[in-house]
Design brief:
The two termini are about 30 Å apart. Strand 8 (about 270-275) and strand 9 (about 280-285) form a beta hairpin. This protein is about 40% helix and about 20% strand. The chain is α/β, with parallel strands linked by helices. The strands form three sheets. It has a six-stranded mixed β-sheet with strand order 2-4-1-5-6-7, sandwiched between helices. A three-stranded mixed β-sheet has the order 3-9-8, sandwiched between helices. The chain is built from 14 helices and twelve strands. The protein has a domain at about 285-350: Beta-grasp domain (Ubiquitin-like (UB roll), Roll), CATH 3.10.20.30. The structure holds guanosine-5'-diphosphate (GDP) and magnesium ion (MG). The site of magnesium ion has 5 residues, from helix 1. Guanosine-5'-diphosphate binds near residues 13 and 226.
């Protein structure tokens, strides 16, 4: 799973990339990819409780994209050259600048996050619209001939025309393609406005603790953070970090909440495992069954699956330990088809 950081030049993408991955950003103009660990207080608690030798967090990839300036045709062409990488992502994060200050030149001469989000969205819509229009032309031509796929082509044409209409009305395709069967019909196009979009308002350090005033329309989530502050915080630990956080009215880095929101936006949840050897969060697609979740740990666990001994993290935490959870009737035995929920602690019983 992968999420891409997009936005105009100098909006703070690479700074945020560095803060979440610890990976140095690439040179301007290149795409840089890194794996990020998603901070998870649940795993920390379990690891402490079970005195685990190893603690493992959920991970996914983040892609730092070059800044997309739309000021000139050659810059727009540059944007198009990178479109393929965006298409293969599972979600997009629009990073826009909301901090003042003359030391960093403002995009188009003025700090205006709403304008920047709109410009980006418009660009994504244009890209999709072009694909949709081309496909409509082809389907119409094809429908004049007696080909075998006619029924299917007709249905797709109807859908593509609805997509076209939505885009022309400034509506992303995520709003149109809600029916899984319809979404499947056009999945090969990997439409950009079909992907979940998270908005990051890169605010001044002093504003980092302020809640978001207004959720952006069609955004999966809108988050205020200061990329520079997060980058600085990622270099500190323990008391130094606490002191620094307190100075800015924060109790923890915003990075964790941001990454959890990314996971949620791209449809990932975590199940947990715990024990002396390891406490761990396992990212799975929302809707995954117990047997498939077991398979992510090891194929033997899926093959020989008998039952998943399950307790919700919150229930275990409230009870204090497994024994009390069991006495409280909070430990369930679930079968293969059980749909695993975020925060489920699983112990797979299997025999091979
Ligand atoms: N004051 C301030 N400057 C920032 C912040 N985030 C990034 N910058 C600065 O803005 C400039 C561009 O940042 P960068 O992350 O390279 O932007 P990118 O072009 O979007 O990758 C750099 O000089 C950063 O130090 C922030 O939260 N506050
Ligand atoms: Mg950059």
């Amino acid at each position: 799973m992968e999420i891409a950081l997009v936005g105009p030049p100098l909006s703070g993408k690479s700074t945020l990339f560095q803060a979440v991955s610890g990976h140095a950003p690439g040179h301007s103009g290149v795409e840089t990819r890194a794996m990020v660990k998603v901070p998870d207080p649940r795993v920390d608690w379990l690891s402490g409780k079970f005195a685990s030798k190893k603690t493992t967090y959920a991970t996914f990839n983040v892609l730092d994209m070059p800044g997309f300036s739309q000021e000139t045709p050659s810059q727009q062409a540059e944007f198009r050259r990178h479109m393929g990488s965006l298409r293969s992502c599972d979600g997009l994060v629009a990073v826009v600048r909301a901090f003042a200050g003359a030391d960093v030149p403002a995009y188009r001469g003025k700090v205006d996050p709403i304008r920047d989000i709109q410009e980006l969205r418009t660009e994504l819509m244009f890209a999709d619209l072009e694909q949709v229009a081309n496909r409509i032309d082809r389907l119409k031509k094809q429908l004049t001939k007696p080909v075998k796929t006619q029924e299917q082509d007709k249905r797709e044409l109807d859908l593509q025309e609805r997509c076209q209409k939505a885009l022309e009305n400034d509506m992303p395709l995520s709003e149109v393609l809600r029916d899984p069967e319809e979404a499947k019909m056009v999945s090969s196009f990997a439409f950009l406005t079909q992907k979940p979009l998270l908005v990051v308002l890169n605010v001044a350090e002093t504003e980092a603790s302020k809640p978001v005033e207004k959720e952006m329309l069609y955004a999966a989530a809108t988050i205020n953070l200061s990329a520079r502050l997060e980058a600085d915080l990622s270099q500190l630990s323990g008391d130094d970090q606490k002191t620094f956080l307190a100075e800015y009215g924060l109790t923890e880095p915003v990075r964790g909440r941001f990454l959890q929101a990314c996971m949620q936006a791209i449809g990932l949840v975590s199940f947990l495992t715990c024990g002396e050897d390891e406490s761990r969060a396992w990212p799975i697609r929302n809707g995954t069954t117990a047997v498939d979740a077991a398979g992510t740990i090891h194929s033997d666990l899926a093959r020989g699956f008998i039952r998943a001994e399950t307790v919700a993290y919150e229930d275990l935490k409230a009870a204090g330990d497994m024994k009390t959870s069991r006495a409280n009737g909070k430990i369930r035995l679930e079968g293969k088809e059980y749909v695993v929920k975020d925060g489920d602690i699983l112990n797979i019983r299997f025999s091979v």
